[in-house]
Specification:
Structural class: alpha/beta
CATH class of the largest domain: Alpha Beta
CATH topology of the largest domain: D-Amino Acid Oxidase, Chain A, domain 2
CATH superfamily of the largest domain: D-Amino Acid Oxidase, subunit A, domain 2
Largest sheet: 8 strands, mixed
Strand content: 15-25%
Order of helices and strands: EHEEHEEHEHEEHEEEHHEEEEHEEEH
Distance between the termini: 47 Å
Length: about 400
């Protein structure tokens, strides 16, 4: 029986179009659960529900990890260094195994174990707490003084650095490829995918049907909304003042020809506290370019509006920082610039909770710029809630979500 399913022919391939005209509509299926949003949170939630025996439809308006999505783009960092926030250290470590397993079945790698290096200009509570949490959990974390840093990574300048924390077991996730591969595996294992834009749900005592932009009606017993920066548009009264999409600029620079010092075999992913203004980046992964970005929240963004052109100010900051921390890259040509978005909660904690009125609806979001690595664990928690298993983690509850941005999770 033909269904409206998009199939990824190979890992990282472009998502194929829906089935040809005349195929049965998605409205004709008896879905147990519909998941709206095929980013990292939605895809892992759909897969967790499929593993639990659910008949799952995953829906996205543009496609898994599309260009406007927070899960789109080349790379994301995975690390368990989270200061005192042990919950995220545990989730990152638990998720890593799923990413490694997915990477082994992909056509090209998804997880690149290049390691992650955090740099500190002075003694920080974040660093002390990270060390304590890693010791408590039995996770490896190496503290390096400036001499050790310079000996290991001479292509970096550490003149203003007091010490570094190195996690050798973590590294980079190839973001778009990861999500598209996961959706491919989900479909091949019996899940279903449809490209469709979903209208905001109508108010009522119970939600049993979604309506698409073309008027199709999708019925299911339960629903999960993992629509990232579109959550405030789907639930304006509930989330319009609790999820804050921000504009984030990312730059890729071309290393010198023939210079392998800036590849993943010789340079880790890195994050620099930079006197409180966190800057992060990656080595030249798959010859795409040396990546550099600010983690500071940018200006508010409407995910549907405007061209995504990086600013001259953002590029100037990136060049100035790069020349200081990576002297051999001073003046390196810009090879690519991207504008994506974070979708932040007030303090950086995730949202994984049931709708306050519709008990068959789960809301998932607030990735806040650090969520990608946690996809497998977020999916597990969201699926458990959707299936009626227990209460939400208090930090991830809707009740804990404020309306004033005061970021506390990094």
């Amino acid at each position: 029986m033909t269904t409206r399913r998009a199939i990824l022919t190979t890992a990282g391939a472009v998502l194929a179009a829906s089935a040809a005209a005349g195929a049965p509509a998605i409205t004709g299926k008896a879905w147990d659960t519909v998941v709206v949003g095929a980013g990292v949170f939605g895809a892992w939630t759909a897969e967790a529900l499929r593993r639990a025996g659910q008949r799952v439809l995953l829906v996205d308006a543009w496609g898994p990890a599309h260009a406007q999505a927070s899960s789109g783009g080349e790379s994301r960092m995975t690390r368990s260094d989270y200061g005192a926030d042990e919950i995220y250290s545990r989730m990152a470590h638990a998720s890593l195994g799923e990413w490694q397993t997915l990477s082994t079945v992909a056509g090209l790698p998804i997880f690149l174990g290049c390691g992650v290096l955090f740099l500190f200009q002075r003694d920080e509570a974040y660093a002390r707490d990270s060390i304590a949490v890693h010791r408590r959990l039995g996770l490896p974390l190496e503290r390096l003084d400036p001499g050790q840093l310079k000996a290991r990574w001479p292509q970096m300048a550490f003149d203003d650095i007091a010490f570094g924390l190195h996690e050798a077991d973590f590294g980079a996730l190839m973001a778009r490829r990861a999500v598209q591969t996961l959706v491919d595996r989900f479909v091949r294992a019996g899940g279903s995918y449809a490209q469709a834009a979903i209208q905001p749900p109508a108010e009522g005592a119970h939600l049993d049907t979604l309506v698409t932009a073309t008027g199709e009606r999708i019925a299911a017993g339960r629903f999960v909304f993992a629509a990232g920066p579109w959550l405030p548009k789907l639930f304006p009264a509930l989330l319009g003042t609790r999820i804050f999409p921000t504009r984030q600029e990312i730059f890729f620079f071309r290393p010198p020809a023939g210079d392998a010092r800036f590849g993943p075999a010789r340079l880790p992913g890195w994050a620099d506290w930079n006197a409180g203004d966190l800057v992060y980046g990656f080595p030249d992964l798959e010859a795409r370019g040396f990546k550099l970005a600010q983690d500071k929240h940018g200006a508010a963004i409407d995910p549907d509006a405007g061209d995504r052109i990086a600013s001259a100010e953002g590029l100037a900051f990136a060049r100035d920082y790069m020349a200081r921390r990576f002297p051999a890259l001073a003046g390196a040509p810009l090879s690519e610039a991207r504008v994506c978005q974070y979708e932040n909660s007030a303090n950086g904690d995730f949202l994984i909770d049931r709708h306050p009125l519709w008990r068959n609806v789960v809301l998932v979001g607030g990735g806040s710029g650090h969520g990608f690595k946690h996809g497998p664990e977020v999916g597990r928690l969201a699926a458990a809630l959707a299936l009626g298993d227990g209460a939400p983690e208090p930090r991830f509850s809707l009740a804990s979500k404020g309306t004033i941005q005061a970021r506390a999770v990094h």
